[in-house]
Amino acid sequence: MGNRAKDQDIQEETSKALCGVCLSLNIANMDEEKNEWLAQYYSPSKWNNRMDPGGVVDYHVNICTGYSKTTRKSSHCELSVCYGEKKAKMDIFYPAQENDDTAECVHEESGSSAAVVLFVHGGYWQEGSRKIYSFVSESWTKDGCVAAVVGYNLAPEASLDQMVGEIQSAVKYINTRFPKSRLFLCGHSAGAHLCAMMMVSDWSKDLSIPQAIHGMFLLSGVFDLVPIVSTYVNDALKLTEESAAQVSPQQILTKMSPTFVCLILVVMEEHGSPEFLRQAKEFVEILKSHKVQCCLLELPGVDHFSMIENMVNSDDLLCQEILKGVRNITSAKSEKGVKVPDSGL
Ligand SMILES: N[C@@H](CC(=O)c1ccccc1NC=O)C(=O)O
Question: Which residue ranges run through the membrane (predicted)?
Answer without folding.
Answer: none
